[in-house]
């Protein structure tokens, strides 16, 4: 939402493992750290899986040392095994290409599951009632899914499909027949506006969905634009309070931080947005959802794993991973021409030399001139916080009260201002921290898909809360409990970043962290001044600090 979208260079590949001149994509990361060896089939008999052995490799090959497969010796490049909501993969040799929009029509081959089954709750498939295990619906480059009940039995490296029925190839990009309803995550920008019209060309009824998650956006203007472009309906959902209470507060309780510096502002927002999109899809009886995330970023993973977890039957249209879309729109120029041809209002202001994404918790900047990690961010880049050098010379002294690890009240000691509502509390902290230039970082991080990327972030209120909670937690929590909790927090941060918020393992970790917070109660006083947060003192009725022992 609110992203100034960037278009992928589809020819760029992730780092590969090589062997005698051949190269292959890195084996996908799966929950639990597993990888799928090359040549390994997924035949299942009963509840056991049999695996064909991988090709023999010479001793000392890097793949032996690192647990990663290498490419066949003839030099063919094999595709990255797609990731699924449940961690499954599409067997090698099995095609997921579609002549239409990256989805494959299918018939259900497995028996109906009883309502309330865990697979309904978590988006994972259960096996047929005879006990055989079936793989989860995979996350595919075309945005489609491998149908439920489809066989993936392999014989001598080849795969067959029992129920797969491919649509006939179309000779024209325009489809007159009605194909169903799609809920499009719409921002009002150039990319998603073109996607809206393109989906209508293909024969879909499009319902535009906008989430108000705290970004600076003219929602009514976006609504009018979507309707003029042919959207059947437009939903604008204010989810700021849910974002704070159900996503930001658990992250505060965990002291969640990715790779020691990133406070996960975008990572937390995506499952919140996608959950609401799924709710709209179910309300409208829509079979499809779509988004404008690119094929190189993390957002595609976060959106789609959430959708599959909460709505396993949904089909996802991901244009920027579909050849029929990205071959037609190779850059901003192609999109602009398409927009003019179809009467889509085009931006009149110059394009920013970087992309931005904003929500209540933070704003991120990446791409463009920032792709050179040596390039200094210009002062004009920062929009959410004041330059610390120009911030006020007088600090704001705040007192933040926590109960069970959740902030419940903030008081400005200087002027007596108090807020206890979750949304108002967070907005107030954003204002104070922004005024003093708190929360700026410039980092290089490791993306889910294996590449490194540079990101610049402004996270004002999140930075204050991270420091305050860390202090009161240390003051009140048992040492050994905290050690375990820190280990869980590291895993939790990675799960959030990689899009597994609604996975069973993430639910388990959240419940453990919540249990650890039962005694985290008290008040922390701090001074906010020129980009820094200074802890002044703390108090708690549940403190484990004993003055008599330290005298």
UniProtKB/TrEMBL annotation:
Residues 182-345 form the Arginosuccinate synthase-like N-terminal domain. Residues 354-550 form the Arginosuccinate synthase C-terminal domain. Belongs to the argininosuccinate synthase family. GO terms for biological process: argininosuccinate metabolic process; L-arginine biosynthetic process; urea cycle. Pfam families: Arginosuc_syn_C, Arginosuc_synth. It comes from the Eukaryota. One of its GO terms (cellular component) is cytosol. Its EC number is 6.3.4.5. One of the enzymes of the urea cycle, the metabolic pathway transforming neurotoxic amonia produced by protein catabolism into inocuous urea in the liver of ureotelic animals. Catalyzes the formation of arginosuccinate from aspartate, citrulline and ATP and together with ASL it is responsible for the biosynthesis of arginine in most body tissues. It comes from Pleurodeles waltl. Residues 46-67 have a biased composition (Basic residues). It catalyses: L-citrulline + L-aspartate + ATP = 2-(N(omega)-L-arginino)succinate + AMP + diphosphate + H(+). It is found in: Cytoplasm, Cytosol. Gene3D superfamilies: Argininosuccinate synthetase, chain A, domain 2, HUPs. HAMAP family: Arg_succ_synth_type1. The lineage of its organism: Eukaryota, Metazoa, Chordata, Craniata, Vertebrata. One of its GO terms (molecular function) is ATP binding. Its main location: cytoplasm. Residues 1-10 have a biased composition (Basic and acidic residues). Residues 92-101, 148-162 have a biased composition (Polar residues). Keywords: Amino-acid biosynthesis, Arginine biosynthesis, ATP-binding, Cytoplasm, Ligase, Nucleotide-binding, Phosphoprotein, Urea cycle. This is Argininosuccinate synthase. Residues 1-177 are annotated as: Disordered. Pathway: Amino-acid biosynthesis; L-arginine biosynthesis; L-arginine from L-ornithine and carbamoyl phosphate: step 2/3; Nitrogen metabolism; urea cycle; (N(omega)-L-arginino)succinate from L-aspartate and L-citrulline: step 1/1.
């Amino acid at each position: 939402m609110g992203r100034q979208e960037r278009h992928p260079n589809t020819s760029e590949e992730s780092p590969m493992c090589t062997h005698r001149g051949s190269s292959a994509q890195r084996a996908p990361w799966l929950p639990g750290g597993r990888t799928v060896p090359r040549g390994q089939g997924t035949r299942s008999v009963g509840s056991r899986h049999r695996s064909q052995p991988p090709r023999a490799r010479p001793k000392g090959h890097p793949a032996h040392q690192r647990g990663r497969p290498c490419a066949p010796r003839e030099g063919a490049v094999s595709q990255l095994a797609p990731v699924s909501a449940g961690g499954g993969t599409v067997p090698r040799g099995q095609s997921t290409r579609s002549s239409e929009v990256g989805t494959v029509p299918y018939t259900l081959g497995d028996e109906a599951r009883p309502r309330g089954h865990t697979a309904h709750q978590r988006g994972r498939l259960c096996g047929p009632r005879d006990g055989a295990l079936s793989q989860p619906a995979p996350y595919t480059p075309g945005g489609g899914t491998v149908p439920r009940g489809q066989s993936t039995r392999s014989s001598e490296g080849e795969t067959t499909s029992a129920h797969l029925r491919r649509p006939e190839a179309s000779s024209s990009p325009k489809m007159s027949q009605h194909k169903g309803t799609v809920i499009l995550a719409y921002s009002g920008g150039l990319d998603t506006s073109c996607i809206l019209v393109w989906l209508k060309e293909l024969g879909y009824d499009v319902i535009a969905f906008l989430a108000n998650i705290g970004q600076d956006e003219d929602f009514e203007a976006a609504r009018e634009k979507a309707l003029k472009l042919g959207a059947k309906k437009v939903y604008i959902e204010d989810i700021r309070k849910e974002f704070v209470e159900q996503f930001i507060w658990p992250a505060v309780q965990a002291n969640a931080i990715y790779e020691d510096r990133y406070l996960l502002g975008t990572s937390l927002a995506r499952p919140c947005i996608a959950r609401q999109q799924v709710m709209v899809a179910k309300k409208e009886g829509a079979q499809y959802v779509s988004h404008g995330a690119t094929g190189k970023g993390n957002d595609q993973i976060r959106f789609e794993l959430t959708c599959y977890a909460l709505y396993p039957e949904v089909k996802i249209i991901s244009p920027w991973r579909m050849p029929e879309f990205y071959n037609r729109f190779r850059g901003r120029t192609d999109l602009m021409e398409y927009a003019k041809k179809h009467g889509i209002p085009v931006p009149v202001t110059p394009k920013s030399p970087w992309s931005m994404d904003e929500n209540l918790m933070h704003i991120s900047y990446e791409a463009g001139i920032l792709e050179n990690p040596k390039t200094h961010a210009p002062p004009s880049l920062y929009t959410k916080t004041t330059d610390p050098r120009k911030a006020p010379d007088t600090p704001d002294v705040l007192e933040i009260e926590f109960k069970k690890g959740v902030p419940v009240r903030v008081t400005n000691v200087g002027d007596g201002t108090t807020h206890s509502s979750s949304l108002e509390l967070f907005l107030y902290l954003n204002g104070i921290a922004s005024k003093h230039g708190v929360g700026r970082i410039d980092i290089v991080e490791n993306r889910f898909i294996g590449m490194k990327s540079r990101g610049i972030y402004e996270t004002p209120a999140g930075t204050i809360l991270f420091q305050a909670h860390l202090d009161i937690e240390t003051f009140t929590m048992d040492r050994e409990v905290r050690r375990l909790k820190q280990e869980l927090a590291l895993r939790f941060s990675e799960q959030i970043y990689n899009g597994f918020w609604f996975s069973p393992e993430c639910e388990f970790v959240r419940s453990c962290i919540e249990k650890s917070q039962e005694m985290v109660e008290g008040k922390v006083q701090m001074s906010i001044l020129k980009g820094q947060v200074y802890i002044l003192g703390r108090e708690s009725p549940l403190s484990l600090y004993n003055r008599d022992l330290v005298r």
